[in-house]
Amino acid sequence: MAALRSYVSGAWHTPPDEGVPVHDAVTGEEVARVSSTGVDFAAALDHGRRRGRELRALTFHQRAALLKTLASHLNEHRDELYALSRRAGSTLADARIDVDGGIGTLFAYSSKGRRELPNDTVHVDGDVEPLGKGGTFVGRHLMTPLHGVAVQINAFNFPVWGPLEKLGPAFVAGMPSLIKPAGQTAYITARLVDLIVDSGILPEGSVQLVCGDAGDLLSHLTEQDLVSFTGSAATARTLRAHPVIVERAVRFNAEADSLNCSILGPDGDVELYAKQLVTEMTAKAGQKCTAIRRAFVPRDRLEEVTAAVRERLGRIVVGDPAAEGVRMGALASLRQRDEVRRAVKAIGGTVLFGDPGHVEAAGADGELGAFLSPLLLLGDPERDEPHEVEAFGPVSTLLPYDTTEQVIEYAARGRGSLVGSVVTEDEAFAREVVLGLAPWHGRLLVLNRADAKESTGHGSPMPALVHGGPGRAGGGEELGGVRAVLHHMQRTAVQGSPDVLTAITGRWTPGARRSDDDVHPFRKNLARLRVGDSVTAGPRAVTLADVEHFAEFTGDTFYAHTDAEAAAANPFFGGLVAHGYLVVSFAAGLFVSPEPGPVLANYGLENLRFLTPVKPGDELTVTLTAKQISPREGAAYGEVRWDTDVTNQDGASVAKYDVLTLVEK
Question: pTM of this prediction?
Answer without folding.
Answer: 0.90
